[in-house]
Amino acid sequence: MKKLHKVLPVILALILCLLFGAILTVYTVPMKDVSLNLSLGMEEGFLVSETYDDKGWTVYTQNGDTRTELEPDGLGGYLGIELGQTFYFSRVLEEDLDSPTLQIAPVNRNFSVWLDDVLIYTDCPELDNRIGFLSLPMGEWDRSDLITISLPLNYRGKTLTIAQSFPDYTEGGSVKAYPTSVVLYCGYSYESGLIAESFRTAVLMTASFALGVMLLLSFLLLRDVSMLFLSLSAFLWMTSQLIDTSFCYSYFGSQFVSLAPVIKQLASGVQLIFLGIQAGKYRKILWTVTAAYFLSIAAFITVSLLFPTFSPSNPAFLFAGPVQEWLAFAGFLTVLLLGTVFWRKENWFYHFFCPLVWIAIPCCWVYLILSNPDEVANQIVLFLQDASISYLYRSTLPAVTVTTLFLAAAQSLKKGNEYRIERRLLDERRELTLSSYENLRRQHEEIMMLRHDMNRHFQTLRSISTDGQVNSYLEELIGQNQKIRPVVQSGHQMLDIILNGKLSSAVDAGITVEIIKAEAPESLPLSDADLCSLVINVLDNAITASSAAGIVNPYIRIDIHVKGNFLAFLCENSADSKMIQMAETKETVPKHGLGLKIIQGVAERYGGMVSTEYGEHSYQLRAVLPLN
Fold this sequence. Notes:
There is one protein chain. With 628 residues, the chain is an alpha+beta fold. The protein has three domains: 35-187, Immunoglobulin-like (Sandwich); 196-423, Rhopdopsin 7-helix transmembrane proteins; 488-628, Heat Shock Protein 90, CATH 3.30.565.10. The protein has helices spanning 2-24, 189-222, 225-243, 248-257, 260-278, 283-306, 315-341, 348-371, 373-386, 390-464, 468-483, 493-508, 528-546, 577-585, 594-605; strands at 35-37, 42-43, 46-47, 58-63, 66-69, 71-72, 78-79, 87-92, 100-104, 111-115, 118-122, 147-150, 159-164, 182-186, 512-518, 555-563, 566-574, 609-614, 618-626. A six-stranded antiparallel beta sheet has the order 5-4-8-13-10-11, with no helix packed on it. Helix 2 packs antiparallel against helix 3, helix 3 packs antiparallel against helix 5 and helix 8 (348-371) runs antiparallel to helix 10. The radius of gyration is 43 Å and the shape is elongated. Residues 42-50, 482-486 and 586-592 have low confidence and may be disordered.
């Protein structure tokens, strides 16, 4: 039942994420693009079919009410027209489309368009725009923009009639009329495509930017340089995706768009650096490939600057692209192979990265094959013929990139959580240290008061006693009491209190204590709290290590002295070297190495330094602090 209470919130959170994630992706899918090519005879330069299809059109000339149909030649042309004569072609619109829109290619012709004899468009409004009374002139120049006409929603069943001008000179020696291309399409399909692309881009850019910021904050908080490189990779990947949009040129111009190859190359290179930092042994192989890859990028940039207008036939251009792709592919392949064989067993990141990426890559290829099998087959043939790695590299990279970013975000959250736990434990340890110091200081004051009171009692007894033998004994006790001094007398009161209290505990635990030297100035640049944290943690670690099971001759050796303008604090203790080495090399784990972290933190705050070394059966910590 308790496990159910823990699992239910997670399941609910996943359901909510999937539900609202699905809602979020609605606008990333464009509406179905319904486009009907109603052109006569020719489509994109090829015959529609061997049997000519008039697609319901009637092509004719009309003078007043007299209509003369033209004869098709089977190749898209119509015979029976005179030079300079306007001709018409019409059909009944039975197609059912939302937001119906008509598209006409004008070139150097002029047009008028009717729907059931109602004029809905004309290039020459000054003419008599009635069917059979119109004489359209030719245009003076070619028009590149298509004529777009929105049809009314009740267009079905109505007759569409288009009037087209005809030149007053022969073209190729024959007099044939060629009706222009006509397309009927859903008016908002194009806008829907732009909306879907914009929304899809916005979602990806927002996610990439948020991920980059999170990784950057992780770098600032944890000082993990690998997060800095991956954050840069996320930002570069975000920029490359923005450049790939159809509307990028309209906003940023050609100069920015020309940077696309370099930005994509840098994104992959920085990602390789991150993967190399995370790697274990044999990482030099990856560093070699990565260095070669960055050299190829530098060569590409140099060639681009020297030949800003070079053509794709330039040998430098032909050499740069394939080499970079092969090197990048070799780098990621090296990561996958070495990561699977070696690194997966060495750290958390590759433990999850390798299985996930081996699952993600086949999923990407299955999606590509199902969505466009012909394209995949053509690219495989191209790869076998020309050894072009481009398609294989570009199709595999997203799986590696997404897996890398996902796991890096998870690792960042994991390390952030460990950091918060560690900070909380450090604060608790610091409070315990200060509490320990207060107890030592209070005990010291109580002992000093007891000694003072005891001395007064002895003196009182001596003054009222008449027995000479008793008085002699009291004199001896008073002398011994006055001669009692602390074991450590360094010259710094607080340091003495801490050392004497902690070393007394060590002696009680059966640890041999040796004071080689104890010299310190009366005042130190450290605050009382920091001095307490430093010394108590050093001694607590030494007592814990010396008290561990298996230590034959436990000891603690202290050496405190001033050398030059520095205070040197050395503590050596008996220890199990394997345990010490494991504690120092182990990844951050709560309650491991907290004392050493506190010691290092105090030393860094005051410009000092801490060094440690261990022998076969000993551990030594040396702290050096400046005195000004």
